[in-house]
Design brief:
- It is built from 11 helices and 12 strands.
- The protein is α/β, with parallel strands linked by helices.
- The strands form 3 sheets. It has an 8-stranded mixed beta sheet, with helices on both faces. The protein has a two-stranded antiparallel ribbon with strand order 3-4.
């Protein structure tokens, strides 16, 4: 009788611990499924404005399922003021509006990947033209972009605006800051932009100066829309960050570029790009070194290692920068891919990104997860 009781007691204990183990395994399994379920992933509200209509002096809203892969854009008039943060993305020199919408969607995916779930607005400007035409159009779109920024700020004064610009989109944003700097109602309200982040900025390395002479003494600037945006940066922005990448194929000069005939920025501008080299430095001719003229809120972050050696950022199974009519891909090093700042798509499923490019660094900067974001040469 005693043995039977002992056996039953041992069996009960075994069953109890076995049941607990099953429950623990089950809970662990269910938790794993829940965290990986795409249906429960928070989504960013997406909006889209365009200045592509030459008859429209400012901008127009695009709504409905008109985005990348039929993505739906919300009505900007319904943007609620309780959103404490709104991000506005400005694209660079692109060959079509379809490409622009793909870039915006990729930014959205990369922000979601970093759990930064706030309304995102895409600002589309007519960049599908020659480099020289696009450069002037970017500057001309500055006041139109400033109108969008001020409209949101007047409607929702407590909302923090974070501006994110890629490539030649940097000129749109810089031009808008100059426009806001000269906007009396904006300044009377003491409005400011929470942050500006430039990725692969296709503007000259002296254009962040607060001193107009830094622009005037450079003969390559004559007859161009280039300007000293430093005073506007310092006055209208709380945090201004320029992400630099010395290996950026589109921006890097000879001799770093292995295919000199196909370099883009140095060939067109005969100068160094802000996104490649950072602010203008010159150890031998001090007059050309603008360090003392930098805005007090200017910072640089090196993001080269955030752009892996992946030749296909948009997931179309083609090299993003290849020599025409050849099989030669010009992306050969970490940091080369100018389109990689916004993230990299999975070529087998374009709705998924496999790497968020430099967007994680941007988000870290926004939410102060990093201990420092300033280049050593600014210390």
């Amino acid at each position: 009788m005693k043995n039977i009781v002992s056996m039953n007691y041992e069996m009960i204990l075994a069953l109890f611990f076995g049941l607990m183990l099953l429950l623990l395994i089950g809970a662990s399994y269910n938790t794993s499924i829940a965290t990986s379920s795409p249906g429960e992933t928070a989504k960013i509200p997406l909006y889209y404005v365009s200045t592509r209509d030459p008859q429209n002096p400012t901008y127009e809203m695009v709504t409905g399922p008109k985005g990348y892969q039929n993505e739906t854009y919300g009505n900007l008039n319904e943007l609620k003021c309780q959103n404490e943060t709104v991000v506005i993305f400005v694209h660079g020199w692109e060959e079509s509006e379809d490409k622009v919408k793909e870039r915006l969607n990729r930014v959205k995916l990369s922000l979601e990947n970093n759990s930064f779930i706030h309304p995102l607005i895409g600002f589309s400007w007519r960049s599908d033209t020659t480099w020289f035409g696009a450069k002037f159009l970017a500057a001309e779109n500055g006041p139109k972009f400033a109108k969008l920024v001020s409209d949101i700020k007047y409607e929702c004064p407590g909302t923090d605006l974070r501006l994110l610009a890629h490539s030649l989109g940097a000129r749109v944003v810089l031009s808008s800051l100059e426009s806001l700097h000269e906007n009396e109602p904006w300044n009377k309200n003491n409005f400011t932009i929470k942050s500006v982040d430039l990725l692969g900025a296709a503007v000259d390395d002296e254009e962040v100066s607060t001193n107009p002479q830094d622009i005037l003494i450079d003969q390559t600037n004559w007859g161009t829309p280039k300007s000293d945006y430093g005073q506007a940066i310092e006055t209208e922005v709380t945090n201004f960050t320029n992400s630099i990448n010395s290996e950026d194929y589109i921006l890097e000069p000879i001799p770093e570029n292995p295919y000199p005939p196909f370099q883009i920025y140095p060939s067109f501008e005969a100068d160094k790009a802000l996104g490649q080299s950072g602010y203008q430095k010159n150890l031998y001719i001090p007059i050309f070194d603008i360090k003392k003229s930098l805005p007090k809120n200017y910072a640089e972050i090196d993001v080269q290692d955030q752009l892996p050696l992946n030749v296909d950022a948009d997931g179309d199974r083609e090299c993003d920068f290849g020599i025409p009519r050849t099989n030669i891909c010009m992306i050969t090093e970490i940091g080369d891919n100018h389109r990689g700042y916004l993230g990299y798509r999975n070529p087998d499923d374009n709705s998924i990104i496999i790497n968020d490019g430099a967007i994680n660094i941007v988000v870290d900067n926004w939410i102060d997860r990093t201990s420092t974001n300033t280049s050593p040469n600014l210390q």
